[in-house]
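Re: that backbone. Tokens:
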């Protein structure tokens, strides 16, 4: 059909005028080339909802290096290889590499069975081993020394015959940081796709056995999980309980000065000091979670910035004092899960089908907690540690004038990973030679230019996808994680002429809620959320859990039935619709909307009121 709608081709996307040099500074292998016009791409706003600083692109690169290796070469998924990525105007687009040749699929099935089935058979032992590996990797990163350059080498360098000067340590530390970050992503994907695979196999079985079953009903059969990523929020609830028990709850209020509150608690006597001790217990390790999803250097951890967990304390304290239950409805979810599993099992006719069903749901329950649990160790604890170690290099370079007068340690994130290594070597040379480094004359203008580019890119929207719409989306991960289906793509292409008051997406968690839409486009805007608002965002993540006590429902642009937002919404019993494609662009802040989480429909009820700034 010649009139078939399609998204813009990559070659038609222009670099925002004035930012050409900043665009060219991304690695060559992440730039669109003419051949990319023949492929389908979508904007990965789930993981990269904001323009990417140049150093932060390592979070995409290292992830896709490891994901590709495990999909394609390690576990050998039969029909899906890796994910390609490109960046333009700071926005990361991705596209899956499918396997379509039947002979190659057959060969890969044989490989997959030998590899994946071994993991499924030994899941608990291998997962315990995985946790040990991750804790060791975190310990290695924590042990890396702070990069420093003394005026003169310590005497023990000569008196012990060490034979290596301090400037060499800079290169050693930096390269170990980058290597450790890449290694973390390999650990990350060791289990993740197998966790999805077990669920997807069960999902496919259910769709064939029960043609009328909804995606949400299947997903509810694995709800009620325990995973480390929920623990930080549990710790905030624990701290709220302890504040009430110790009689220090009156110190916590909305918009509190956190430093002042900590000082007050330290001064009020034993109860205050005991609560501060409880805070320290929670912080290590559970506050090593990022306020975002772990892909941006400025999404600081709760340990670096206590504002997110402390913002939740007054609400939790108020509910505890009122006798309101603040726990996740885990017992209810498990009861519903077991009833659903039993009800659908009764619909199966043969003993063979029942045995297969039992085996598949049993495996899904065993492996599924990893799908969320790994995030605490990988995207959050390790990644936050990694960025803070890079900040130490930023501080060293700033100290030596690399970012000009008034330069800050975070300016380092405007250099890509290769440029940062070159700046480090520049400093190593200058320190050893006793001359001035070239960096102070080179980098300030570059950093200023890239700061301006990031700001400018943030003002421009972008297409949710690029290239010709494929006839079918065959990669189950792209469907279940990102929510990219043929129907959804058609909805994204809809010009709004049919019904501009209704959006469709995935039914993530049932319930019908009407309320005021609060459109949140970045982590920094979370503070605008008021009690009862409906959160409208590109994507959320488990570390936003403390705000779930405030909101009535949630809507996202991207995400499928197994996206992190969908999983978290179900675990908290929060009505939600994910994967709408364009909620943040069509819904205005302050509009009244209705969310039907059971049907996957969001309805705009009325225009936003025009309010004067207070």
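Recovered sequence:
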């Amino acid at each position: 059909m010649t009139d078939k709608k399609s998204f813009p081709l990559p070659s038609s996307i222009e670099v925002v005028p004035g930012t050409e040099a900043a665009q060219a500074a991304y690695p060559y292998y992440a730039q669109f080339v003419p051949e990319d016009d023949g492929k389908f791409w979508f904007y990965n706003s789930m993981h990269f909802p904001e323009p990417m600083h140049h150093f932060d692109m390592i979070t995409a690169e290292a992830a896709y290096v490891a994901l590709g290796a495990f999909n394609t070469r390690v576990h050998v998924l039969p029909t899906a290889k890796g994910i390609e990525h490109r960046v333009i105007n700071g926005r990361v687009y991705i596209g899956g590499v499918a396997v379509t040749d039947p002979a190659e699929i057959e060969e890969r099935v044989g490989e997959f069975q030998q590899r994946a089935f071994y993991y499924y058979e030994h899941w608990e032992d291998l997962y315990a081993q995985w946790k040990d590996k991750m804790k060791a990797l975190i310990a290695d990163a924590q042990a890396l020394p702070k990069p420093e350059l003394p005026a003169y080498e310590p005497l023990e360098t000569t008196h012990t015959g060490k034979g290596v000067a301090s400037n060499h340590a800079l290169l050693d530390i930096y390269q170990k940081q980058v290597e450790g970050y890449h290694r973390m992503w390999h650990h990350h994907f060791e289990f993740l796709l197998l966790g999805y695979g077990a669920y997807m196999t069960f999902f496919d079985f259910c769709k064939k056995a029960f043609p009328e079953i909804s995606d949400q009903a299947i997903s509810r059969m694995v709800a009620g999980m325990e995973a480390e990523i929920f623990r930080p929020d549990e710790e905030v609830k624990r701290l709220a309980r302890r504040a009430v028990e110790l009689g220090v709850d009156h110190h916590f209020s909305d918009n509190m000065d956190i430093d002042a509150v900590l000082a007050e608690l330290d001064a009020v006597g034993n109860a205050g000091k005991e609560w501060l001790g409880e805070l320290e217990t929670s912080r290590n390790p559970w506050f090593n979670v990022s306020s975002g999803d772990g892909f941006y250097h400025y999404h600081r951890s709760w340990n670096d910035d206590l504002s997110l967990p402390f913002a939740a304390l007054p609400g939790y304290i108020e509910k505890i004092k009122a006798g309101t239950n603040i726990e996740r409805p885990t017992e209810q979810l498990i009861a519903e899960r077991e009833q659903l599993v039993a009800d659908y099992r009764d619909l199966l006719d043969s003993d063979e089908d029942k045995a297969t069903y039992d085996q598949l749901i049993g495996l899904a329950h065993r492996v599924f907690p990893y799908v969320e649990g790994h995030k605490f160790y990988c995207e959050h604890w390790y990644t936050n540690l990694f960025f803070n170690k890079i900040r130490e290099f930023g501080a060293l370079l700033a100290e030596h004038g690399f970012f000009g007068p008034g330069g800050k340690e975070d300016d380092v994130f405007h250099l890509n990973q290769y440029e940062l290594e070159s700046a480090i070597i520049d400093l190593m040379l200058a320190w050893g030679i006793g001359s001035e480094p070239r960096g102070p004359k080179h980098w300030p203008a570059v950093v200023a230019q890239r700061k301006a580019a990031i700001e400018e890119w943030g003002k421009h929207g972008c297409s949710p996808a690029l290239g010709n719409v494929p006839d079918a989306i065959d990669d189950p991960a792209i469907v279940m994680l990102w929510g990219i289906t043929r129907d959804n793509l058609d909805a994204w292409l809809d010009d709004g002429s049919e019904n501009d008051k209704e959006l469709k997406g995935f039914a993530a968690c049932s319930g019908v809620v009407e309320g005021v839409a609060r459109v949140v486009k970045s982590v920094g805007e979370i503070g605008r959320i008021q009690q009862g608002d409906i959160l409208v965002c590109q994507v959320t993540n488990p570390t936003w859990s403390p705000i779930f006590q405030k909101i009535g429902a949630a809507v996202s642009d991207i995400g499928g039935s197994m996206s992190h937002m969908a999983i978290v919404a179900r675990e908290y019993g929060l009505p939600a619709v994910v994967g709408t494609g364009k909620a943040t662009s069509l819904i205005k802040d302050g509009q009244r909307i209705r969310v039907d989480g059971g049907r996957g429909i969001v309805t705009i009820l009325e225009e936003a009121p025009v309010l004067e700034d207070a």
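The chain has a mean pLDDT of 92. The first strand starts at residue 41 and ends at 43.
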